[in-house]
C-alpha cells in the first residue's frame, strides 16, 4: 500500500471527535450489521471489537480505518477456523468416522490432512486448500494492518510526522 507522507501527516494529525469511544461503538454496530451472520454469535464479535479497540485505542480517522480493517480481518479468521471445524465434521460424516477414530494430531489442520490424504476419494481436499489460502491472506493482511497501526501510534506518541513521500508497505 502506498501512502504519501503528506497524506499520512494530515490524516494522523487530525484530532478524534470528543466522543471517540462512542464513534467506535457506532462503527462496530455498523460492522456487525454487515459481518455477523445469523448463525454467528454477536457477543463474540462485540468481544473481538472491544479487544481490538482497547488494544489500539484509535485516535484519528486513519487509525479508526485500520482498527476497523483489523476487526474485519480477525472476524473473518475466526470464521475460517469455524469453517475448518465444520469441514472436519463433514469429513468424519463422509468417512463414517467418529472423533475417536481420528488419528491424534497436534492441531485440526494436521488431523484434516491425515484424514483427507488417507481417503483419496475425499471431496474435501480442494475446500481445505481454499480455506488455507484465505487464512494465509487474512493473516498477512492483519499483520500488515498491525504494523501500520504501530507506525501511526509511534508517530503520534513521539509527536513526529512522517517524512514527505514516505512509502509504507
The helix count comes to 6
Q: Structural class of the helix and strand makeup?
A: mainly alpha
**Helix proportion of residues, in percent?**
55-70%
* N/C terminus separation: 5 Å
Overall radius of gyration: 21 Å
**Rounded mean pLDDT score:** 76
Beta-strand percentage range: under 5%
Q: Give the strand tally.
A: 0
Number of domains: 1
What does this structure look like?
This protein has one domain. Helix 3 (42-56) packs antiparallel against helix 4 (61-94), helix 4 runs parallel beside helix 5 (108-118) and helix 4 (61-94) packs antiparallel against helix 6 (125-158). Mean pLDDT is 76; it is low at 1-26. It has 169 residues and is an all-alpha fold. It is built from 6 helices and no strands. The chain is elongated.
Topology:
Blueprint: H1 5-12, H2 20-35, H3 42-56, H4 61-94, H5 108-118, H6 125-158
Helix pairs in contact: 2-4, 3-4, 4-5, 4-6
Q: How would you describe this structure in keywords?
A:
elongated; mainly alpha; 0% strand; 169 residues; disordered N terminus
In short:
With 169 residues, the chain is mainly alpha-helical. Helix content is 70%, strand content 0%.
Amino acid at each position: 500500500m502506498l501512502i504519501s507522507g503528506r497524506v499520512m501527516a494530515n490524516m494522523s494529525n487530525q484530532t478524534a471527535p470528543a466522543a471517540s469511544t462512542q464513534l467506535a461503538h457506532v462503527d462496530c454496530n455498523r460492522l456487525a450489521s454487515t459481518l455477523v451472520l445469523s448463525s454467528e454469535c454477536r457477543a463474540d464479535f462485540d468481544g473481538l471489537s472491544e479487544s481490538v479497540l482497547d488494544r489500539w485505542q484509535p485516535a484519528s480517522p486513519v487509525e479508526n480505518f485500520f482498527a476497523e480493517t483489523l476487526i474485519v480481518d480477525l472476524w473473518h479468521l475466526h470464521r475460517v477456523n469455524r469453517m475448518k471445524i465444520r469441514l472436519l465434521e463433514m469429513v468424519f460424516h463422509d468417512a463414517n468416522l467418529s472423533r475417536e477414530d481420528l488419528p491424534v494430531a497436534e492441531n485440526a489442520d494436521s488431523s484434516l490432512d491425515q484424514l483427507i490424504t488417507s481417503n483419496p476419494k475425499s471431496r474435501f481436499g480442494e475446500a481445505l486448500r481454499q480455506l488455507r489460502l484465505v487464512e494465509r491472506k487474512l493473516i498477512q493482511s492483519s499483520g500488515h494492518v498491525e504494523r501500520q497501526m504501530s507506525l501511526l501510534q509511534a508517530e503520534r506518541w513521539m509527536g513526529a510526522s512522517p517524512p514527505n513521500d514516505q512509502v509504507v508497505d
